[in-house]
Amino acid sequence: MSTPDFEPFRNKMTSANVMEPAIMAFQQSYEALCRNETGMIDESSLDPVGGLPEHVETGESFDPELLAKTVVIKLNGGLGTSMGLEKVKSLLEVRKGTTFLDLIVRQIQSLRESTGAPVRLLLMNSFSSSSDTLGHLAEHAPDGLREAGEVELMQNQVPKIDAATLQPVAWPNQPDLEWCPPGHGDLYPALVGSGWLDRLLADGVRYAFVSNSDNLGAVLSPELLRWFAASDAPFLMEVTRRTAADRKGGHLAVRKADGQLLLREVAQCPDSDLDSFQDITRHQFFNTNSIWLRLDLLKKKLDECGGVIPLPMIRNRKTVDPRDPESTPVIQLEVAMGAAIESFEGAQAIEVPRSRFAPVKTTADLFALRSDAYHVSEAGCVSLIPEREGRPPVVSLDSRYKFVDSLDALGMPSLAECDSLTVKGEVRFEDGAVIRGEASFEDETVPPGVHG
Q: Which residues bind UTP (predicted)?
């Protein structure tokens, strides 16, 4: 390809008040695209990851001194459109009148009250999620956790690229469609460009725990905080064992050339290596998208790299209007937050139990989470009831229950003793229905009593 002309992108992004660090990060990805870099990582260049340290919950209490040096960052830019929600996903209800966002706030408030430490919370919002989030906080959050200047870290936006010209796509009828999110790897330029990194460091904050807002298993852990602080590592990734259901997800590996840990996504795997990629006995660990950062070492790394953490570019081919397959073909460039593991010498990974990875991606996930198989504590923490011994119920719902509002007609049985539940067609669970073991229902009303 010819030498890239980045000036039109810079002009477009500057006019839209995009932060300079985000422009620099996008330029890095764009130039990699124009060099025709594929981002592919061959299996022959990798070794599987061997034994990792394991996180064990001992029930110890938080160290207030460490908590005072900690910020919890929740990635909160996604909308719940795939589940029929026309607002930010963290406003889904976990219990009647209690949302994901409410529980996140309750966790921070509880820590502040119980330890006296001013643990911080930042919500990394997108342009799509900011208004909903701040509006909800204004009505429901306590003082100190409701104003944008106290809790909001804004994600950037980047231009979509015309696939034919490799220049900014033009879509004058809906100019908003000319932009896309840059992926959660935008965390690093957003922290710098917003001024939050310097502000946190000036306040004595040293440690950051980052996770998805829809993963209620990812809570601040006293054991992990102590372990990370004692490790002096610049970067820590929480990983858990892959199962057959995770074989298409990104996995952790070791680069043979230098022994560095790295993250390989399926988009970075050559077709000829897919069997090895999906071999969960070879590559046993996947990224939970929960990471820990040493903020002072992050700033040092940014200074060394000219202000931009080098992250592998991920290219996605779409159309400018995702609802119109005949609209202009575009390339959307993204970077992944976890991919930064290969940029930090001394970066580490730790194996955590599956209970710390409980994202809600579908209404089936939400249905299980709303059941009595899970307990919500006064401190806002969600966990499987002890009787389940860490095993969540496996729920499969018919496509007619794809959207959240359809769950109301389904009813809610007891899943405390359920191993798996399959629902096909029009099903209604009456009050008092109990699912035990494995059960499947199709086009029927399920009466009170034990089923399975």
A: 89, 155, 183, 214, 361
Tokens describing residue 231: 């490790």
260 is in an annotated binding site: no
Query: Which backbone phi and psi does 303 adopt, to 5 degrees?
Result: -65, -40
Task: Give the domain range for residue 251.
Answer: 7-356
3-state secondary structure of 92: coil
How many alpha carbons fall within 13 Å on the CB side of residue 417?
9
Q: How far is Cα 112 from Cα 106, in angstroms, rounded to an integer?
A: 10
- Quick one: 288 and 427 in the same domain? no
Is the pLDDT reported for residue 3 higher than 70? no
Structural domains in the chain (count): 2
Strands 98-99 and 120-125 come out as unpaired
Last residue of a domain, one of 329, 356, 383: 356
Q: What is the pLDDT of residue 1?
A: 47
We report the CATH number of the domain holding residue 166 as: 3.90.550.10
> What is the maximum alpha-carbon separation in the chain?
70
- The pLDDT value recorded for residue 2 is 53
Q: Is 183 annotated as a binding residue?
A: yes
Closest CA to 151 of 66, 67, 74: 74
214 marked as binding residue? yes
In terms of Cα–Cα distance, which of 61, 364, 358 is closest to 238?
A: 358
Q: Is residue 259 part of a domain?
A: yes
pLDDT greater than 80 at residue 269: yes
Q: Where are the beta strands (DSSP E) in 66-143?
A: 70-75, 93-95, 98-99, 120-125
Count of C-beta atoms within a 10 Å radius of residue 411: 14
Establish whether 155 is an annotated binding residue. yes
Residues marked as catalytic: 361
Task: Tell me which residue has tokens 């590996």.
Answer: 253
Residues 211 and 135 both lie in one domain: yes
Tell me whether residue 184 is annotated as binding: yes
Strand-pairing partners, residue 376, are 382
Whether pLDDT at 359 is above 60: yes
173-179 own/partner pairs: CB under 8 Å, 24+ apart: 174/321, 177/320, 177/321, 178/320, 179/16
Q: Are residues 305 and 423 located together in one domain of the fold?
A: no
Residue % of the chain over a pLDDT of 70: 99
Cα–chain center distance at 228: 20
Pairing of strands 207-212, 285-294: antiparallel
Measured distance between the N- and C-terminal CA atoms of the chain, rounded to whole angstroms: 61
User: Does 350 share its domain with 377?
Assistant: no
Q: Which of 330, 356, 382 is the last residue of a domain?
A: 356
